[in-house]
Amino acid sequence: xxSYRIDHTKSTQRAYPTVSHPMSSLxxxxxxxxxATSLVKDVAVIRFMPPPTALASYSVTGVYGDxxxxxxxxxxDNIKVGAASPKCVSFPTNYATDLNFGGPxxxxxLSPFTVKPAQLGIYEINLVSDENVGGCEVTFTEYDVDxxxxxxxxxxxxxxxxxxxxxMRWLWKMGELRDQEEAASVVEKGGDPLMSPLINTSLMASxxxxxxxSPVSAPQKKKRINSLDAFRGLALTLMIFVNYGGGxxxxxxxSTWNGLTVADLLFPWFVxxxxxxxxxxxxxxxxxxxxxxxxxxxxRCLRLFSLGLLLNSAGGEGDLSTxxxxxxxxxxxxxxxxxxxIVLLIDSRSPTGLVRNASxxxxxxAVSISAYCYLxxxxxxxxxxxxxxxxxxxxxxxxxxxxxxxxRRHVDAVVLGAGHFYADPTCKEVYGCQDYDPEGIVGSxxxxxxxxxxxxxxxxxxxxxxxxxxxxxxxxxxxxGSVLLLLGGCLCGFSQNExxxxxxxxxxxxxFVLVCAGFACVLFSAFYAAMDLGVGGx
Length: 538
Description:
Layout: E1 3-6, E2 28-30, E3 43-48, E4 57-64, E5 73-80, E6 87-92, E7 97-102, E8 113-115, E9 121-130, E10 135-145, H1 153-188, H2 201-204, H3 226-243, H4 262-281, H5 290-313, H6 328-347, H7 358-377, H8 395-398, H9 407-415, H10 428-431, H11 441-464, H12 471-492, H13 510-531
Parallel strand pairs: 3-9
Antiparallel strand pairs: 1-10, 2-6, 3-6, 4-5, 4-7, 7-8, 9-10
Helix pairs in contact: 3-4, 3-13, 4-6, 4-11, 4-13, 5-6, 6-7, 6-11, 7-11, 11-12, 11-13, 12-13
């Protein structure tokens, strides 16, 4: 590692007040005798050595990279000359940390010194005076790095195992098709298919050869869409894995505020899959039974919502005044009701699908996202800027500490009451934000729009690729998904924090919904090509 020189005449850092806040818990002072083997994942140790006589003492503050615009947090304080031992601090390693050194020659207004240590590494920071520039020089030295070289081996083993299972299944399927073709060839030649050594006798025992084969293939039996089941199973498996800690991998945890991780995608993918399923399976009710069908949809939504409330009450004390009302199943209920109303209103009147009624679909589908945009960016919130979408607390220099989520939280507080939504959001540890529910009322509108995008994909699948499987759907789904990803990227400015509408799962921002739907379309098209189109497709 090279030496870095800090010169107080070249200050570009924004002046924030140094305050104590929850981010301090990310930097914990520990014993310098702690071995690297006792550290946990995504953590390193930095030793701050005592300064030379000329510097007398120094202090260190820092801003963690995942805390956007936060004021500096005190990391170590008053390291004096002649100290018997250094001060050791555990550092998170998933993001870089900007350090600022304060002392007689190292002013706290100096440009930040950025470090991003490797996990389980032990590093050393020394400050020495440099009279030539009237400041101090900082050296960052790798002392002992024992990073887990095999940290991702469990994931590679699981992936390799799944690929092997998929390959074996494909070979087995190809073998069955070969046996069937061989049996048909033997029968056409007038032979006994059971005498062929290449034929699977257990398979052929169930085949009736008493009649000659018909030149016209029999109609295919209606079957499930294997790729959709597999995609749903993948999302479910990953969701269970995330709920049990995600193996300690940071990308299997939800984003602090803005940003996107694997964990952020899973629940939205379920919502999207629900929309696809409705688009593929919906059949217009018989004449005069529209009200009955509406009643069935409403009853199912009510059951989902009630189950969500029941799950929210698990582990509580039975106090209804603090029962969380929003939740995951509640989102499913609202989104399911929304997309079923759309298909019932359109397809029941003119059951021609998406092609003829495209304008009606787009018009009704835009209702939810338009309502979301108005409530999020056009509804005044007392004490907060119009359209505020920050985390509150220390977000952006603690400019609006009591505005977590802006109008979205305000709507929840007015409609549900302050005691009826989530009390431990992901932003609390880093930003010190208020209680905030990531499945709030306003977010259910954009979740409904995500289900609508899934509904469009389902209609596309039904029109182009349900029976028999067709390459046309693969190309169409890839194009649809790419457009959604591009739109989402444009909204967020292809940036985590700097764009007009950042990708944010807590807010269910429009860019987040578009990106989730885009990834779902692209991934599902790959599953479809491999599982449905790969066998008997055209």
